[in-house]
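I had to read the description of the data format several times before I understood it. In essence, backbone conformation is discretised, so a fold becomes a row of integers matching the chain in length. I therefore recommend that a typical entry be quoted early in the introduction. For illustration, here is how one protein appears when written out as sequence plus structure tokens.

***
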Amino acid sequence: MTESDSLIFNTYENEFNTLSAEINDTIENKLKKSVGEKKKQLLNQLERELDEADEIVSQMDVEIRSLATSTRIQLQPKIKQYKSELDGLKKKLKATYNDVTEERRQLLGEENNGDNIDIVIGELDNKSKLQKNTERLINSSKRLQNAHRMALEAEQTGASTLNTLYGQRQQLEHAQDTLRSANSFLDTSTKLLKDMQRR
């Protein structure tokens, strides 16, 4: 891995670790103490931050695909770890939200509205799937572009080879004509010598 590649990947890592710590702190401390409008604001914030963290992991995944195989194998476990950590944060958010909501429901006699957090988590998962599908489409497009480029290069190489062969054929034909002319001249010279000897 070059210094530039290492710097880019490390930057993504630092961003993810910082954001992950902030999300975890918000879930474990701030969300448990919040009510009403404040809780809604925190949920919106967590949704944005989890979405951003998902995007960072996707960027890291894309980044390592352009690296050497040995480096890619070395970094893949980290990507898997970050994806697992992100899934853990989503589950923790859901569990914490449901716990807080259940406590409030029991205290105030409200109906269970835990479906809200399921919608949030579901939207995040759908965004993650959409990002993965987009990445697959981008990679497929790149493979098609590479295949097209290789086909054009092969076509150009073939045309160049044909031109070279055509030139060589012309040279051979010219050499054959020269050889025939030389043979004809030699035959004529031989006849003249024989005629001179007879005289």
